[in-house]
Structure formats: structure tokens, C-alpha cells
Amino acid sequence: MPKILTLLFLLMMAVHILKPIGLPGLRRRRDFWKIAVAAIAAMMLTVFVRP
User: What pTM did the predictor assign?
Assistant: First the structure.
């Protein structure tokens, strides 16, 4: 599961740099770091949820 999340977030960042997604808070190309912060949070949540 973490590998799938990693690939998904990397793909989202690459697409966002080419063409901004347009969601609130992600309207500019330079906002791709916000996706990286969400990815780190999701990875931490995955680690904490595991037994």
C-alpha cells in the first residue's frame, strides 16, 4: 500500500507541475509542495495504523 501511495502522489505532483490541478490551494504550479506535504502525512498515517 505505501508503494502505491508513493507512486500516486509522485504522479500527481508531476501532472500538477505540467498543468495545475485547479483545486482550492492548488491553483499555481509552485503549489506542488502542498501535495508532497499531504503525501508525507499519508505515509505517516499508514505507518501509525499498521500493527
Answer: 0.69
pLDDT tens-digit profile, the chain (51 residues): 678 878 888 898 888 888 887 878 778 888 888 888 988 898 888 889 987
Query: What is the identity of the amino acid at 25?
Result: G
Contact 38, 5 (CB under 8 A): no
Ramachandran assignment for 50, one of left (phi > 0), alpha (psi -120 to 50 degrees), beta (any other): beta
> In three state form, how does the secondary structure of 9-34 look?
HHHHHHHHHHCCCCCCCCCCHHHHHH
Q: Do 46 and 40 meet the contact criterion of CB atoms below 8 Å apart? A: no
